[in-house]
């Protein structure tokens, strides 16, 4: 019979998530994960199967703890008209102040070899779909005059600006902010 885990799995996943987010999957070695989590290699492999297994859980933690709470506000049936604009202001603030892990864990992963992994690629596609669904709801909350097709087209443009801003956040915060400002301008034009 195997040993019972004597560590806080959620805290371990969060520490690993922060490390993957700061350094990227490929640049994060198992000894880095050992230092960050306080667990030995054997414990990490026993609990998560592999570095990739830990990364997969870290990605789910990122989505559940950081992304989905923001998107849920837009999908709420009683979402305020400025909910989408508030999202972009929050992301803009993060780009300007976050030094440890700016941008997005998933967008960063998409542009590295781990992004080609079928499981990771599916999660990234699902992330895009979640953004599009939430932004479409946010556009509808801001402007009831638009048809469903018009709302979706505007949401697609906003998703593109968001994704490009998150991709640029690490290397060029000023360009990321410019894209977020363009998204905010589009949000202002939506208001009924």
UniProtKB/TrEMBL annotation:
Key words, A-Z: DNA-binding, Transcription, Transcription regulation
GO MF entry, a single one: DNA binding
Keyword match Hydrolase: no
UniProt superkingdom: Bacteria
Domain HTH tetR-type: 6-66
DNA-binding region(s) in UniProt: 29-48
Entry keyword Transferase: no
Protein name per UniProt: TetR family transcriptional regulator
């Amino acid at each position: 019979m195997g040993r019972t885990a004597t560590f806080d799995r959620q805290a371990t996943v969060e520490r690993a998530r922060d490390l993957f987010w700061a350094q990227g999957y490929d640049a994060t070695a198992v000894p880095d994960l050992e230092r960050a989590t306080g667990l030995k290699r054997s414990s990490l492999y026993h609990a998560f199967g592999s570095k990739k297994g830990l990364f997969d859980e870290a990605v789910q933690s990122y989505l559940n703890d950081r992304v989905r709470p923001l998107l849920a506000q837009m999908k709420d049936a009683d979402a305020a008209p400025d909910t989408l604009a508030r999202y972009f202001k929050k992301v803009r603030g993060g780009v300007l102040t976050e030094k440890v892990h700016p941008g997005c864990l998933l967008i960063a992963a998409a542009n590295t070899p781990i992004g080609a992994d079928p499981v990771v690629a599916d999660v990234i596609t699902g992330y895009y779909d979640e953004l599009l669904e939430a932004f479409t709801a946010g556009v509808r909350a801001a402007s009831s005059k638009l048809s469903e097709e018009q709302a979706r087209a505007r949401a697609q443009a906003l998703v593109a600006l968001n994704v490009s801003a998150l991709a640029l956040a690490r290397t060029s915060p000023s360009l990321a902010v410019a894209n977020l400002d363009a998204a905010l301008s589009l949000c202002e034009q939506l208001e009924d």
